[in-house]
Recover the amino acids of this structure.
């Protein structure tokens, strides 16, 4: 199945935190969107890998995703090397996305910057036909040799640490539903009834911070809520009036 947009991020919930509003907006326009989680987030303070997979499935339904895969890389210890690049190329070549969104170029969590480099490299090498791959990913594996495919553009999330965005997407109409997708991760975020240990992202302050960040990004483009992105190369637009 060909997708328009594939979000490839290291921890289940990175995609929702960084760009659920953008995903919801594109799905509402009829675009096909998928998420590839690189790890099961097994080093997270709260929850278990099994619970987080169920939560990711629940969030996928809220977002209206066409596909969601988990690469099963090791949280914290995956590397940007040939083995991981080739594994990821299988997903990129299967879904043939025009656009890829991945982790922040650097962040508080060192996995984010490393995942960002891995995804950028895998997107490039995926376009080289001399690198052979076979579709062996998950239950839908065909076992067939794959064609090369290079996404046209790779955008980066802005996650915990502030990075000046290169562009901002208006997500005003989708902020409440974004929040709903985050709350699907019951083990991870603020829940006054939880008996799990407190973590950085499980506090009420963290949810308030997320809203404040979305308001700040929305404010600078004259809307209520926004999601910011960075891009490695200069982007262009056909119609000046598409910009706001
Ligand atoms: Zn993360």
């Amino acid at each position: 199945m060909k997708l328009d947009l594939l979000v490839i991020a290291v921890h289940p919930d990175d995609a929702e935190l960084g760009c659920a509003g953008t995903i919801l907006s594109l799905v509402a326009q009829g675009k096909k969107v998928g998420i590839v989680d690189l790890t099961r987030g097994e080093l997270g303070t709260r929850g278990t890998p099994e619970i987080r997979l169920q939560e990711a499935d629940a969030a996928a339904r809220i977002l209206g995703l066409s596909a969601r895969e988990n690469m099963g890389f090791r949280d914290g210890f995956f590397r940007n090397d040939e083995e991981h690049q080739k594994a990821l190329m299988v997903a990129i070549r299967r879904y043939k996305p025009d656009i890829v969104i991945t982790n922040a170029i650097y962040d508080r969590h060192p996995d984010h910057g490393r995942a960002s480099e891995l995804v950028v490299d895998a997107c490039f090498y995926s376009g080289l036909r001399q690198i052979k791959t076979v579709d062996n990913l998950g239950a839908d594996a065909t076992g067939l040799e794959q064609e090369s495919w290079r996404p046209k553009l790779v955008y980066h999330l802005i996650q915990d640490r502030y990075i000046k965005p290169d562009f901002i997407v208006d997500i005003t109409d989708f902020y409440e539903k974004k929040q709903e997708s985050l709350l699907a991760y019951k083990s991870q975020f603020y829940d006054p009834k939880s008996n799990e240990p407190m973590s950085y992202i499980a506090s009420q302050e963290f949810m308030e911070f997320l809203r404040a960040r979305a308001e700040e990004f929305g404010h600078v483009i004259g809307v209520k809520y926004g999601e910011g992105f960075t891009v490695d190369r200069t982007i262009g637009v056909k119609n000046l009036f598409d910009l706001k």
